[in-house]
Amino acid sequence: MGRLHLRYDMMAVLTIGIRLAAVLTGFLVLPLLVGQLEHKAMAHMQARLGPMEAGRFHGWAQLVADGVKFVQKEHVLPDRADRAMFSLAPALALLPYLVILVVIPLGPSLLGVDLDAGLLFVLAAMGVSVLGAVMAGWASGNKYAQLGGMRSAAQLMAYELPLVLVAGSVAMAAGTLSLPGIVAAWSLWWLGWQGIGAVVFFTAGLAELHRPPFDMPVADSEIIMGPYTEYTGLRFAFFLLAEYAGIVVLCALTATLFLGGWRGPYEQQLGWLWMLLKTFALSFVVIWMRATYPRLRADQLQQLAWKVLVPLALIQTGRDRRGEGGGVRCGYLGPAWCTGC
Amino acid sequence: MHLALAIALSAALFTVGVYGVLVRRNAILVLMSIELMLGAVNLNLVAFDLLHHDRLRSGQVLALFVIAIAAAELGLGLAIVLLVYRNHGTIAIDAVRDHADRDPATVDRAS
Amino acid sequence: MTGLDVAVLGFGLLMLAAAVAVVTTKQLVHAALWLVVSFAALAACYLLLTAEIVAWVQVLIYVGAIVVLLLFGIMLTRSPTGPSSDVDTRNRWPARTVALAVGALLASTAIGPFWSTYLPLSASSAGSAKVLGTALFRFWVLPFELLSLLLLAALVAAVVLTRAKTGRSDRPVLARSSSGRGPAIGAGRR
């Protein structure tokens, strides 16, 4: 008996190990794919060639070349910088996204770990990542970096509230905080019911990632590169990687919460493909928005958060009414139309 | 696990918080020390909740309430700190003596 | 000593060490970051005690909101990047004495009766979202609503306190007036 148990335990450990290795691979590959997508899609949108030399075909090796270049660059530690914080900040910005990827489901059982409170965990980790930018801004000992750090702190505080509110709305609709549970409870008419929530979540998430048009903290025409001004070489590459990993995480989360994750035709066999397709479609929207909209001013950013997104999030939350059957019913389409809830 | 371990950790954390409140001069550092004390209280609440296992889950619910109230307290506390900084140019808590009970002629404004 | 005891003790000691760093460091920003470490270790202790929701709420609120707010406050009060000399008062020894007395009192009164009490942590769902949510909205609805009122009051109060008076709003924001009442960066309405 004892031997059997031991073997069972070893199997469990092995399964977890394989899952974590798969998550790590995804974490290393997916952000690079998004980065490559951004290079190519933006080049086409702006009717320019972009880098086309590396690797012969369409410049596919440009990212590899960029990576090699970053590794070769010198580490510069500014004189007035806070050594320990300056070196730790890139890791703090990057690691939370790796941790988040562990709980995002690719399929009904294709995920690292199924946490009972997965949604709360994900929201908590996303907040930690922004701390990296604030730390970097402070530790650089540079006025522009500090201004950038302050701006990202202000932005985080403004956009965290609508983000958490609409995530709560989805959790109420699904009746669970577990991410696979939410996807399992999802059905097509949620697109209309939780539609406002989806838009608010995506927008607020973009603002937390400092992606254009919400890139006030790194506005290069005013404060050079914000918190990342003093960073060079590999550390700067970590921040770039954190940005793309953030895009992957945000898009995967939006797909999981609002677009039904692995749900789609032949979901038993092709679930992982639907999830990846949804994630990359959303990533394309992120890139599209960068190429389309001009940067918002600081006061416009705050007004968008407090005067538009927070009220919308409250409306979304208020629309989740509780039905007689114990489940949450949509108070929007009316009970005659929707029978599935 | 032993309950005494949780209690000892909580008491030690509270001690550190008390020390911080008493020794720190910067108002923001005092606020941080208060957060440490609230964390110690929460650890106790959670530990005793697991001991009693009542239907109300009072310990854990109260811990959640404490966290929410701590957030409110800190938001308000920082607003006051910023106001003090705006009016006095410093947030050293022993320099803000506008309401001290002494002769107005000898009041030294730290700004 | 079981493995769980050792784990709780390890995270507890990390929490204490970080807390000591919070109250002794000379650099304000370091204090905020040690606070993050301390609260993360505390959350790990909650997790080990099977209080899952409390742990994640702790990380979400403290690290995502409170520490960022504190860092924001530190930056708005224009603290220097390097160590500052005047973060402590001179009564270090009285503070130590009082703190140790409080700690001794707490430990002696609370540990004694529970010296040999053993926490049964077999019910792994004790801190799950379902159990806690049911308790919260079945038995604690009124306190919960009162809490929302309290948060609203705090929100309004914070806005009222930090808002510049309307008469002063057209002064230059960064310039200090002669009375030493110049508003901090970003505090005035622009």
From TrEMBL, chain B:
Record field: transmembrane: 30-51, 63-85
Subcellular location: Cell membrane; Membrane
Keywords, alphabetical: Cell membrane, Membrane, NAD, Quinone, Translocase, Transmembrane, Transmembrane helix, Transport
Predominant location: membrane
EC number: 7.1.1.-
InterPro entries xrefs: NADH_UbQ_OxRdtase_chain4L/K, NUOK/Mnh_C1-like
Catalytic activity: a quinone + NADH + 5 H(+)(in) = a quinol + NAD(+) + 4 H(+)(out)
Membrane topology per record: Multi-pass membrane protein
Family note: Belongs to the complex I subunit 4L family.
Functional summary from the UniProt entry: NDH-1 shuttles electrons from NADH, via FMN and iron-sulfur (Fe-S) centers, to quinones in the respiratory chain. The immediate electron acceptor for the enzyme in this species is believed to be a menaquinone. Couples the redox reaction to proton translocation (for every two electrons transferred, four hydrogen ions are translocated across the cytoplasmic membrane), and thus conserves the redox energy in a proton gradient.
Subunit structure: NDH-1 is composed of 14 different subunits. Subunits NuoA, H, J, K, L, M, N constitute the membrane sector of the complex.
This protein's name: NADH-quinone oxidoreductase subunit K
Organism of origin: Fodinicola feengrottensis
Automatic annotation (TrEMBL), chain C:
Annotated localization: Cell membrane
Phosphoprotein listed as a keyword: no
InterPro entries, per database record: NADH_UbQ/plastoQ_OxRdtase_su6, Nuo/plastoQ_OxRdtase_6_NuoJ
UniProtKB keywords: Cell membrane, Membrane, NAD, Quinone, Transmembrane, Transmembrane helix
Reaction catalyzed: a quinone + NADH + 5 H(+)(in) = a quinol + NAD(+) + 4 H(+)(out)
The enzyme's E.C. designation: 7.1.1.-
Protein topology in the membrane: Multi-pass membrane protein
Membrane-spanning segments: 6-24, 31-49, 55-77, 98-119, 139-161
Pfam families to which the protein is assigned, alphabetical: Oxidored_q3
Superkingdom of this protein's organism: Bacteria
Heme among keywords: no
Family: Belongs to the complex I subunit 6 family.
Function description: NDH-1 shuttles electrons from NADH, via FMN and iron-sulfur (Fe-S) centers, to quinones in the respiratory chain. Couples the redox reaction to proton translocation (for every two electrons transferred, four hydrogen ions are translocated across the cytoplasmic membrane), and thus conserves the redox energy in a proton gradient.
Name by which UniProt lists this protein: NADH-quinone oxidoreductase subunit J
